[in-house]
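Why do we care about 3D structure at all? Because function follows from shape, and shape follows, mostly, from sequence. That is the central idea of this module. The next example makes it concrete: a single protein chain, its amino acid sequence, and then its structure expressed as tokens.
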Amino acid sequence: MNDIDAPLPPDALARRLAEVYDLVGPLYRRAQRGVEQGLAADGLSVGVRAVLTMLRRGGPMTVPQMGRAQAISRQFVQRMVNDAGALDLVESIPNPAHRRSSLIRLTDRGRDTIDEVLDREHRLLREVGPGLTDADVTTCLRVLGAMLTALDHVADA
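And the structure:
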């Protein structure tokens, strides 16, 4: 094990993780603006895109499940579900596990729409960081996951 592979002392770790936070904010905002620009032609908002993506990847979910998964308020998710429903992208179906909390699922139109959006974004992401390795991405995911877990105590909006 060399110096770069040794665990960092707490103060050094805190300084390095602060560098990560300093990058995550601008990265998030730029990515959000890029997504918004890409969605404009589809008439979708970033919030509706997030709902469609969750449903595409996770199958039918309740509004509270989506809110917890994204650490956003149930009320905001409900507004996005309503917007998506108005565009015939999602529909409510009975939830066998809970009478009062319907499941939300993609319509065929919703599935086609989000598949087109994700394909377009995939083409853009193919151009990111030539030379990055699977180990690089795995490490990035591990670090960001640990940082997110460290904030579990922060109340969701």
